Amino acid sequence: MGVFRFTPLLVLALLAGCESPPPPAPTPTSTPSPTYGPPPSKGLSLTVGQVEAGLGHRASVLTLTNRDTAPRKVTGYPDLKILAGDGSPLEVEVEHGTSYFARDLGPQDLTVQPGEKVVAVLAWSATVTSGDTRSGAAIAVVPVPGEPAQKQPLDTDLGTTDTVTVSSWATEVGA
Prior knowledge:
- Helix content is 9%, strand content 38%.
- The chain has 175 residues and is mainly beta.
- Strands 1, 2, 3, 6, 8 and 11 form a six-stranded mixed sheet that branches.
- The mean pLDDT is 84.
């Protein structure tokens, strides 16, 4: 009688050992994220400042340096797009004007001498109301019409606003 008491446990133990091992976990495939090279060493060269934050607002200073040996004309606003992690453009509205971080003086005709710089401020709100939040990983900026876009990494946590504001090119922020 004692042997029959343990027989069901023995059968269960043997059956448990017969299970096939679970299949290996799938290896995640990742889309390679684009890499962004350094700013050009000639022509108009774009650099992007660190993101500054305050009261739910964010901003980064875009600096354009003339690396040519002759003066260059810069007018108006940077033509920019916010890019996703894979480098594709996001559907984000780009407004021209004053933001929480910078006063916009409006479009100006500037002559940038060799080695001189002009700046613009890109600003956005990280406000979340309802819906899906969006983030950008980089920006593409055409400094002046006819030039190629320059792409630089820039994390933009857009919340649910899908809007950024850029000031015009100026000799200094707000001036």
